[in-house]
Write a structure and sequence with these properties.
By secondary structure, the protein is mainly alpha-helical. The chain contains seven helices and two strands, in the order ααββααααα. It folds into two domains: 73 residues, Multidrug-efflux Transporter Regulator, Chain: A, Domain 2 (Orthogonal Bundle); 51 residues, no CATH class. It comes from Bosea lathyri.
Length: 165
């Protein structure tokens, strides 16, 4: 089947199929005398596999490694399980980070009057990249989602200075 048919059958765009070939994630397709790519049912299966792995949050390199494990009929399932559980731990850490961010934004929104005044604790917090905060976090990133509410009048921390909300 040609690249358009392969894209339809796999759910992967033709552009991504060409990209996967260019980075060696899948083998370059066999070409006709006219230069058209031809894909086998095995190629389609591999494309579906990659798409599913990517939809599960695996990086391109991780998808490559999973594909290699899938193709290796002598691999131990323990290796695959270990790989998958490592990914679960990474996803859980990312979820925790996203939940902390959501909590921070909720907190800031709750402390915003939402009226016609220009004062906005949300924008003030986002704009606050003080040397103190950089030093406290070691990387210049705010850890607002972890109860660092230094510039608001919430119950979680004493305000560093009175702020207009």
């Amino acid at each position: 089947m040609n690249i358009g048919q392969a894209a339809s059958a796999s759910g992967v765009t033709a552009k991504m199929i060409r990209y996967y070939e260019s980075i060696g994630l899948i083998a370059a397709a066999v070409r006709t005398q006219a230069g058209y790519r031809v894909y086998s049912s095995e190629d389609i299966h591999a494309l579906r596999f990659i798409k599913r792995a990517r939809n599960m949050g695996f990086s391109m390199d991780e998808a490559r490694e999973l594909l290699a494990l899938w193709r290796d009929k002598t691999r131990a399932s323990a290796d695959v399980k270990s790989f998958a559980l490592k990914h679960v731990r990474e996803l859980e850490a990312k979820i925790a980070e996203l939940q902390a961010m959501a909590q921070t934004i909720k907190h800031l929104a709750n402390n915003c009057h939402g009226d016609d005044r220009p004062d906005c604790p949300i924008l003030a917090d986002i704009a606050d990249v003080t040397p103190q905060r950089k030093a406290a976090n070691g990387n210049g990133k705010s850890k607002r989602g972890t109860q660092d509410h230094a510039d608001c009048s919430c119950d979680d921390a004493a305000p560093a200075a009175p702020q207009k909300h």
